[in-house]
Each structure stands twice: as C-alpha cells, then as structure tokens.
Amino acid sequence: MQILLKNALIIDKSSSHHLSRKDILIQHGIITKIDLNINVDEDCQIITSENLCVSKGWFDLNATIPDPGFEHREDILSASKSASYGGFTGVAMMPNTTPCVHSKTEIEYINNKSLGTIVNFYPIGAITKNCAGKDLTEMQDMYESGAIAFSDGNHAIQNSGLLLRSLEYVKAFEGIIFHHPEDNSISQKGHMHEGAMSIQLGLHASPSLAESTCVARDLHILEYTNSRLHFIDISTKESVALIKEAKSKNLNITASVNAYNIFLNADTLISFDSNLKVNPPLRDIEDINALVDGLIDGTIDTITSAHQPLDEECKNLEFDLADFGMIGFETTYAIANTILKEKMSTESIIEKFTNGVEKVIGEYCYGIEEENMANITFFDPDKRWVYNENDIKSKSKNTPFVDYDFIGKVLGIINKKKLNIN
Q: Residue 106 — φ and ψ, nearest 5°?
C-alpha cells in the first residue's frame, strides 16, 4: 500500500521538518520519503486538502469503553472506528468495565483483543479492586502486563490514606496515578453544577467545592509522597489555580480537561437534554475561561474525550434519572479547535493531543521522519463542517452535538500499516 500526503504542513516538534510543507510518501506503513514534490505511480493513494496538516497520531488519555461487560454499548472494534474517525491513533482505556480491569488477566484481554485494530488501545489498571475504593490491587503485576497508568476512573478515591498508599506503591516502578477529583460527601450525586441555573431548574446540584477540595487534598498527599499524579476531568477555576501553584513548586503533576467542559456551560441545561448530563458537570462561563487560560499557559497539559457510550435505556429518561456521560471521540478535536482557534496556534492545540500526552505517559510513537513507522493523524484546521448522525461511528448515540457547526475536520489516520479516511 502506497500513500502520498500532498503538500502537508508537518506539525511535529520532534521532526526536522517541523512547520514545513512537504509531500510525505508512506509505503507499507513506513515513511519512505519526505520532499517538496514527490512523483508516484497511479496505484498510490493521494491525500489532499486545501490546508492539509499532519502530526503524530493523537492520543486520548480518558475514555471508557465497556468491553468487557456491556459490548452492546461499545466494544473495542467499534471504539476503534469511532476513535479513528476522531483522529486518535492511541486511546487509554479506563478500568470501569465488567469485570473491572483490576488484574493482569483483564490487561491481557484488552491487549489481545485490540491487536488487529488500527487504533492502539492502552489499558489503565484499577487502583482498587472493583474500583470500590477499599483494597489496593496488584498494580505492579498489571504494570508488567502492559498497564500504562492506574485509576479508578470516575470513582474518586475518598480515603486519603488509600490514595497515599497508592502513590507510594507506584513509585517502585515509576508508575502514575490518574485521579478524578471529587469529594462525594460534598457533591452528593448532584445532577448538575450548583449555580443560578440549578436554582432555576430545581435540580439537585454539585458545587465546584467538591472538585477543588479534592484537588487540594491530592496535591498535599502528592507533595508528601513525591510520586506522580495526573488529574483527569478538571473543570473548575479553583482547580486550575491550585494546579498552577503546584506546578510552580515543581510537583510531578499533570492535568487534562474534557473537550465539552471548554465548550458548553451550565446554561445549556435549560433544554433538559439528558445528553448534557456529565460528570464533571458543565460549569459556568468563568470556569470555561479559566480552563482555556490553563490550556494556553500550560497548566492543563491535554484535552480528552471522556468518551462514555451509553444506551437509550440509560439516557432517554428524565434528566435526574439519566446516567452521566456522552460519547466524545468524533467531536473532541472539532470542539477544541472551534473554541481555541482564535486564541492558540494550530501547533499549540495539537500539542494537547501529542506532546502534552508525552509529558504524562512518555513517548508513544515515532516522529515524522523518513524510515520511521507511520503513526499519523491528518486534518484540515480550517475546514467547516456539520456533525450529523452519519458521523457517529460509536454503537451508542448519546451526544448533544448532532447538527453543531464546527471548524476543523479530521481527514483520517495512518497507523499499524493501516489507513482510515473519513
């Protein structure tokens, strides 16, 4: 298979061709030539666009794929189709499956089942058995079997001593803990963000304090253990300020924000669309502004999808009865680019899917250089498009973004000697 990416802007700081426009020839999964003008045979697949850009393959650090257990919502094969459509060549899978990913058996299941997919799936092992927040798992066994990090997913660890022990545990093999910060005694299963809109709608709400209190606690424990911690699901201005201060003290801390939290605010819940019921909840405009500022100044390292496939029985309900979560693979980049395009360069936005990820988990693929394996996302940051039901590749349809206008379109990916064109 021959593929020619024609007149593409290369966005890859690790490449000697960074920020130059070149033709890129890929043969049998290998980048064989990068030059100003490459002539090819008729059987070559030529890819062009008005503003074609290429980068290292994008990586999503926060996705829940219910395989094993609820494959009718999403399995690894359908997740690969959805993730590749969204430009991701790598996806970190949260452990909240049935059974939970809490031993090397489940790690090996994911590794084996994803061998043939175009997307690389990386299992995250549970910190506690069944993600129940009580007994620590054998994290080193899972690490040796291929777990890239450890988390209880969207189950925040309430016991401070347990979090401390988990951070000390992973130090032995330079592992990292991913944590969703939420003090359950404060949030009390609130259905939305506490504020003017929750009062207007009369819904039980969760205050920002539930997140920021947990962030402050976690940072104190991290400083004590001198371990490694990554916050997922950051959503409040207070959390951004705390993380910024921690980074100024050189704590080993990184953080990510879900795309929907920089795009939609709590006022959109006036529609009572249950697809907008997510955790962390949609916040206020002041929080969105702080999150965007955190992305600009580097306080927040990555942008994630928080992909959470759910069936009709879980979402097509009254708002207070519906489950939390939306699918996100297909819209994450489009959301980020649309909201950030006038505030950040294309290079800086793409770093949140590439270089920012490497700050968390280390190098995950080769750069765009001749003789390297091709792990590439290609896209057009200026292309305007409307997300519709035909763009949903997930088995589940729980998204509020159908018929939304976006700027920035993923055109496809190349990985594992495979090509996907949208």
A: -70, -35
Longest dimension (CA), the chain: 65
The pLDDT tens digits for 327-339 are: 999 999 999 999 9
pLDDT in tens, 250-299: 999 999 999 999 999 999 999 999 999 999 999 999 999 999 999 999 99
Looking up tokens 């942008």 gives 303
Pairwise CA distance, residues 377 & 24, whole Å: 13
User: Could you give the count of Cα atoms lying within 13 Å of 365 in the half-sphere of its Cβ?
Assistant: 30
What's the sign of the alpha-carbon dihedral 331, 332, 334, 336?
A: positive
CATH number assigned to the domain covering 57-361:
3.20.20.140
Q: What is the Cα–Cα distance from 195 to 328, expressed in whole angstroms?
A: 25
How far is the CA of 194 from the CAs of 231, 258, 288, 319, in angstroms?
22, 19, 15, 15
How far apart CA 127 and CA 102 sit, in angstroms, is 7
Task: With CA atoms as reference, report the closest residue to 119 among 81, 147, 68.
Answer: 81
Amino acid (1-letter code) at residue 410: V
Whole-Å CA distances, 304 to 20, 181, 214, 261, 353: 27, 16, 20, 10, 8
Answer for the pair 381, 51: CB distance below 8 angstroms, yes or no.
yes
- Domain chopping of the chain, boundaries: 2-53+369-421, 57-361
| Domain 2-53+369-421 falls under CATH 3.40.50.20 | no
